[in-house]
């Protein structure tokens, strides 16, 4: 593994921002148009996947070189150079080094400790593709090192972590995009705009279907594979002997590292429900467990319903389906797809990654009138992040949005784990009323040393 280069780093990335602003200012002066309008027009004219010129390319570091991290970094490499990669599994690290090459032909440097990578001056942004239990500490460290952040969802492992991440991002004025990419899909935006503008009348409830999780076990311990730093991988989570099913890919079915499909797929579909409903958080959550975990196996509930109620009476019901795989692929073509159905007084709208449908096709065909409420437009989640690195405007899934949509998922998981119907105060972000003391105990988790906040201070 290479050590970090000396800090005689290349010129900072905001050189490009200055030249972009200069172009905008000249054009605004020449045309008499407001600067903000010219900026928006120029940005909109950019080809979504156009590569930037060589000295316009930010340096990017990938932290967590698993399935999604590599996909995110490949997308990010349309806008910048992957100059460094980091993983606690040396095999995965080597694969990532082999996969990426900068535009001028250099291989990224490999790291086993993300803190060393963050010392580099030529890293302008990170892509955080680690498991959920590592998101917050890495994002906080990146913010403190003044790096912009593309972080995978769910943004946090606990609700309390969210406030720490928000503080670090705001204190250091960095850009954070949460990897809930459904917001950058025209289909989901259309559904949310129609709902918000009363196209289906008064919104009464939303029904979300998530793929059911895995229910399996018991699992045996095994020797730690060569090249995997298991203690570092576990991080803040309690120490346990190595069990393959706890690690790569299937970590999401354990509460120590994630929250089952409630927080995995829930981070996507709840984020869309949050966008359409437009309220900070529900005030009540209740749940039903439909299958018990197998002792010694995955411990996150695999099949369940969760029912949220908002202060204005709107209900959001979460269901699980076994007709789609845990990756969202169709298992039973006549079965229940994962997605969201908004039910209003005058009709319904169904939306998922494949299609949008309505009780009457005219509900979708008729354009919204002049003056209708419009939502943030992003046609490409990664491009939106890189645009915002230049403009320093908030990306479509900024840190607060990521925190709030993760919170919805955590509320569901806490109700499932405690077995209680609970009352939530969206302003103070605490449970109140019956069972509040027990439920508030789930807002944060003890972090195992040395992997607590001091690890990144
Ligand atoms: N946006 C999406 O559609 C989408 C899809 C899949 C996964 N995800 C999210 O991406 C994240 C990763 O999921 P995955 O399926 O790629 O997981 P994965 O297990 O395949 O990869 C995670 C990688 O992170 C590494 N890692 C763990 N701790 C680390 C640390 N401290 N420093 C550096 N590397 C570390 C692991 O060794 C592993 O290689 C999860 O949070 C998941 O929710 C998002």
Question: Would you kindly provide a written description of the structure presented here, covering whatever features stand out?
Answer:
- By secondary structure, the protein is of the alpha/beta class.
- Helix content is 33%, strand content 16%.
- It contains 15 helices and 15 strands.
- It has helices spanning 14-31, 35-45, 67-76, 90-99, 114-117, 132-144, 159-171, 186-196, 230-234, 261-264, 266-277, 362-365, 381-391, 399-418, 436-440; strands at 59-63, 81-86, 109-111, 125-128, 148-151, 176-178, 203-211, 284-289, 304-309, 315-321, 339-344, 347-351, 356-358, 422-425, 430-432.
- The strands form two sheets. It has a nine-stranded mixed beta sheet with strand order 13-12-11-7-10-9-8-14-15.
- It is globular.
- The two termini are 24 Å apart.
- The model is unreliable at 1-15 and 46-54 (pLDDT under 50).
- It binds nicotinamide-adenine-dinucleotide.
- Nicotinamide-adenine-dinucleotide is lined by residues 63-69, 86-89, 92, 114, 129-132, 134, 152-153, 179, 181, 232-233, 235, 248-249, 251, 264.
Low-pLDDT segments, ≥5 res = 1-15, 46-54
Q: What is the arithmetic mean of pLDDT?
A: 92
The helix content is 25-40%
Helical segment count = 15
Strand order of the largest sheet: 13-12-11-7-10-9-8-14-15
Structural class: alpha/beta
Quaternary status:
single chain
Q: Tell the overall outline.
A: globular
Query: SSE order, as H and E?
Result: HHEHEHEHEHEHEHEHHHEEEEEEHHHEEH
Bound molecules: nicotinamide-adenine-dinucleotide
> How many angstroms does the end-to-end distance come to?
24 Å
Q: Give the number of DSSP strands.
A: 15
Strand content: 15-25%
Characterize the biggest β-sheet: 9 strands, mixed
User: Radius of gyration, Cα only, in angstroms?
Assistant: 22 Å
